[in-house]
Amino acid sequence: VHVDTDAExxxxxxxxxxxxxxxAIPGGWIGKDPRDIAAGLADALVGLLQxxxxxxxxxxxxxxxxxxxxxxxxxxxxxxxxxxHLATGAPFPGREIVPGVGGGPEPCVGIAxxxxxxxxxxxxxxxxxxxDFPNESDQLLLSLxxxxxxxxxxxxxxxxxxxxELRRSxxxxxxxxxxxxxxxxxxxxxxxxxxxxxxxxxVTEEMERQLGADEVTLARYESSDEVTVVAxxxxxxRRLPPGTRVSHRGENVTSRVRRLERxxxxxxxxxxxxxxxxxxxxxxxxxxxxxxxxxxxxLWGIAVGTWKGESPPADxxxxxxxxxxxxxxxxxxxxxxxxxxxSRARLVxxxxxxxxxxxxxxxxxxQQRLVGLALxxxxxxxxxxEDQPLASELADLGEGLNGVxxxxxxxxxxxxxxxxxxxxxDPAIRALARRSGVPVVLDLAxxxxxxxxxxxxxxxxxxxxxxxxxxxANSSRAEVTITSSEGVLExxxxxxxxxxxxxxxxxxxAGLRDRVEAVGGTITIKSPVRDGTSLHVSFPxxxxxxxxxxR
Amino acid sequence: xxxxxVILADDDVLLREGLASLLERSEFDVVATAGDASxxxxxxxxxxxxxxxVDIRMPPTHTNEGLEAAQAIRExxxxxxxxxxxxxxxxEHAMELLAGGRRIGYLLKSRxxxxxxxxxxxxxxxxxxxxxxxxxxxxxxxxxxxxxPLEELTPREREVLALMAEGRSNAGIARLLWVTEGTVEKHVxxxxxxxQLGETADDHRRVLAVIRFLQTH
Lengths: 551, 217
Description:
The structure holds two protein chains of two kinds.
Chain A: H1 5-29, H2 34-46, E1 53-59, E2 66-71, H3 77-87, E3 96-99, E4 109-115, E5 122-128, H4 136-191, H5 196-211, E6 215-221, E7 226-234, E8 245-247, H6 253-260, E9 264-267, H7 275-283, E10 287-295, E11 298-307, H8 316-382, H9 389-412, H10 418-423, H11 425-435, E12 440-445, H12 452-471, E13 478-485, E14 488-495, H13 509-518, E15 522-526, E16 534-540
Parallel strand pairs in A: 12-13
Antiparallel strand pairs in A: 1-2, 1-5, 3-4, 4-5, 6-7, 6-11, 7-8, 9-10, 10-11, 13-14, 14-16, 15-16
Chain B: E1 5-9, H1 13-25, E2 29-34, H2 40-47, E3 51-55, H3 65-76, E4 81-86, H4 91-99, E5 104-108, H5 115-126, E6 130-132, H6 134-142, H7 155-165, H8 170-177, H9 181-194, H10 203-216
Helix pairs in contact in B: 2-3, 4-10, 6-7, 7-9, 8-9
């Protein structure tokens, strides 16, 4: 066998160079897209190894997606053979050498080498007109290339997967952060004691946004097979205003949650029966998830999300439940609060009634009787001669009685102003201003009469503030402004006294808060030291605003 | 001259009877009494009295039945003098009554125990004057104002102003203050010009003007 040593050395050097070049390739491929790797390898086949045709398919075991890259042209038969072979989907157990695939004048040989076991990782294929193709070196280089490609591809895939996973978890974290922010917003509303109606609205809107739902409805279970809607938001038709009663007869998420007392999911079938199914149909809903709302261990109601498209992700129930727990707190708080307000209102009403009764007893009872007695005494006096000792005793008695009557009148002042009940706030406040120890500038714009508890509360606020201004604040004047509009009565009292009134300790201001809050009002007291005291009270005057939503 | 005839309406029997005997002793002729306001107008039309004394709070609601009865009588029989008695004084009530015209009185119920003064008030009302309770006048005069027009007045003038508001004539004021009627006239003239109120010879219009001034300033 003739051996051309120089040529052999040259060939080995070239092989070594190519090996090194090929080995270096994967390092540059790390983190690249699989398509870039396949392209890089195919380029190396026709460029570096100077083959006429190169084909690289990269795929993951068990993955359907594959990346194919072809380099070189003018070739028909080998690619066609390859295609035919790949199209069968049959495993590719070992390298295959396909002679005579060229369409040109020179004979051509093709070779296909599987990547991984049975070609699960893909194929590296090449064809060349060179006479000795594929010699041992070619086969070695191609095998190495296939191996390198597989490794690079696997690690790249891993990185891509990791990146995707990272992105997914980033998205998840962002979603979690959004959700936390939403939960925090709702929790703040709850902590501030915002009216349940406002909390319900906020929660349904946040849920709709956070869960990507098309509709979110919040409803309270009634004792029958009905729910009362407390909030309903979404884009579909047939919106349900709060207070709407809907029967949950039939198969729907609302009845299921009631039965199971745990979260439930339902896919809607068109033509399902029952009012809720019809409603969901009308709104174009496809899937619904419901979570129970349990207050004090009792099933209170349900939050239902409805989606028009695909069924929402598997963690939806869990995410809804997080909102549900906030609602539970909000409702429990509201119930405690409304009970508190109701009991305060009862206390205030009872004390008002007691004052009213006392005032009547005093005027219609005691005073009347005293006047009657004084008249009788006077009658007796006329029957006694003026010079008798009895006459002067009777006169003394009469004077004593008059003194008692005078004391009584002083005492009864302001106990319960009859004029408030008869004439309303305007004359009652004017009387207060006249009797005030400090000059008062009045600006009253009250249209007509308001609910009695509100009038009484407003009256006592002004009375207390003016008493305070005169007694403690050392004021030279006070201003009282009352306006009523848009369902709100605003009462402001400002003095120019020493300030520093403490809203909790003493000075009667603390008692005002109870009285004001009992009728659903709010009170703000500002009393900076040496800068006067200002008191602002705002009362809702619509009939329904006094009683917060209960059960 | 015959005794003035009176109808009395008060729901308290003791007080009603006591007042009736006081009136009888004081040369009034009590022609009828009532325990509530419902039949009062009928009694007035039947007896055509010179004077009606009515308690402001009577059954059924014990609020201002007497006030409403007084207004009804005023409309049906304007010549009848009316005294409304109240457990406490309210400026609005006084203004409503005064707006109805002369021969009107508004007094605290406890005033009946000062018999001489009470009888004097009745005579003034029956005689065509108007009477406003001193406690109410005090509330109006003593009310503190940011820009108080009453600061212009001397203490004596304030005293005279209060008596004017109570419905007293110049002669009446002169008697009470132990001064001549001429002196009172001078005070009145000074007060009215300081407060920029018009002169009037009519005592009732004077009361109305003074009370309205005090209420709105």
